[in-house]
Amino acid sequence: MAHSPLRPACSPRVRPEDSDFAGYARDRWPRLVVTARLLAEDAGAAEELARRTLVRVYARWRRIPRNDVDFHVRRSLVRVYRRGRARRTDGRRRVVLVLRYWEGLGEAEIAQVLGCSVGAVRAVLRRAGKRVRAEERRAGFAAVLAGFVPPAVPLDGVQRDGALRRRRRAGVVAAGCALLLAPPAVLAAGPLGGDGATGASKAPDGPAPGPVRIVSPGERVAAAPGVNVWLTPDGQHWSSPQASNRFRPVNDGNLDSTGAGVPVQVEELDDGTYFQSGVYRGLSADPARVEIRTGGRTVTANVLTLAGSPGWGVWYARTPLAETVAGGGRTVTVYDAFGDVLMRSDLGPSVAQPVRVGAWRP
Q1: Are residues 330 and 292 in contact, defined by beta-carbon separation less than 8 angstroms?
Q2: Which of 254, 238, 246, 241 is nearest to 332 (CA)?
Q3: If we measure between CA atoms, which residue out of 361, 282, 358, 298 comes closest to residue 331?
Q4: Can you give 252-268 as a three-state secondary structure string?
Q5: What CA–CA distances, in Å, run from 272 to 55, 75, 295, 320?
Q6: Is residue 76 exposed (0-12), middle (13-18) or buried (19+ Cβ within 10 Å)?
Q7: Residue 353: how many CB atoms within 10 A of its CB?
Q8: Which of 308, 324, 212 is nearest to 272 (CA)?
Q9: Angle (deg, nearest 10), helices 118-131 and 88-101
């Protein structure tokens, strides 16, 4: 059989995620460039803004839930755009107006993308509405886009740069894991109480927020030895050596009557530590850090939340057994990205200086 020149001798290997991403990028690129044009107000800058956004998305493509890709793309677009803005408030105002009057997002969705409170979004829209009506704003956006034709998606360059960004992040994560594993080792080597020696590592000089991880429904997270945590739209699920498939609904009766609260659940583990976690809800802004204070010490917890705007999430942390039992109560404090307190489980004192995950200090 003669070899056809129209058919390559061998097909290049294409990873499933690459094919998946390529289809999404080709389909959404025109809309992404249009939104970028309304933000950047320059065709060349808009194309570069959209390209850099897809590079960031491709670097994280394997971890993005397929049922909420648009949210992650919008958030990446906004972050890339605002990073290049000299005036932070002006950049946020432009984003709010474009997302509201062109993308058609609601106030809560815009707040989730920006990582701010719904009240802050409403304030921007209220001030803007006094100067220009919504219909006039949409007409102005349409005038900007008159005659604008989105260029072809630079898919090869996006995937090349995204793969490079992914490899660089993997190196950073590997180094970070080594730092995160060091404090538990120090903690295990030293006594937990009684003689004044705590085995605590030295606190860093500045704030180091705990990780806030966005997960898909049902995605299991190894929270502690033998403990898995996963979220569904109804609430928190977890399993541990003591029991499996336990559940705490979002509308738990332990939350106060206003629908806001930070309940705490505690469980002793086989390694001599306590696993503490809880569901938070009813916050005015997205949490950036959750701290738990027990036994006179403080640790920064991990945070899990579903993609989109669920209005709730889950925090968890491990604490020493002896100090948790003798601590006489726990205080859970939730902070926003600016360090302001969004919620506290009781009236205990706030923490003057946060610490990295697993690093204990007096």
Answers
A1: yes
A2: 254
A3: 298
A4: CCCCCCCCCECCCEEEE
A5: 44, 40, 15, 7
A6: buried
A7: 12
A8: 324
A9: 80
Residues 6+ apart with CB under 8 A from 216: 65, 67, 68, 306, 307
Give the whole-angstrom CA distance, residue 160 versus residue 174. 22
Tokens of 3: 């070899």
The one-character DSSP state at 287 is: -
Residue pLDDT, tens place only, 108-148 = 889 888 888 888 899 999 988 888 888 999 999 999 888 88
Quickly list DSSP for 176-206. HHHHHHHHHHHHHHS--SSSS---PPPPPSS
Sign of CA dihedral 341, 347, 350, 354: negative
Beta-strand runs (E) in the chain: 212-215, 221-224, 227-232, 235-239, 246-249, 265-268, 273-281, 289-294, 297-300, 302-306, 312-320, 330-335, 341-344
**Residues with Cβ < 8 Å from 76, sequence gap 6 or more?**
53, 56, 57
Place of tokens 């920006």: 114
Q: What does residue 186 show for φ and ψ, rounded to 5 degrees?
A: -65, -40
3-state secondary structure of 231: strand
> Which of 183-192, 206-215, 270-279, 343-352 is the least confident region?
183-192
Q: Residue type for 49, please?
A: L
Query: pTM of the predicted model, to two decimals?
Result: 0.48
Distance separating alpha carbons of residues 21 and 308, to the nearest angstrom: 20
Model confidence pLDDT, tens digit, residues 262-280: 567 778 887 778 888 888 8
Instruction: Supply 324's token pair.
Output: 């948790």
CA distances from 142 to 13, 33, 92, 124, 263 (A): 42, 14, 20, 21, 48
Q: Of the candidates 197, 235, 223, which has an alpha carbon nearest to the alpha carbon of residue 301?
A: 223
Residue among 68, 33, 65, 26 at smallest CA distance from 47? 33
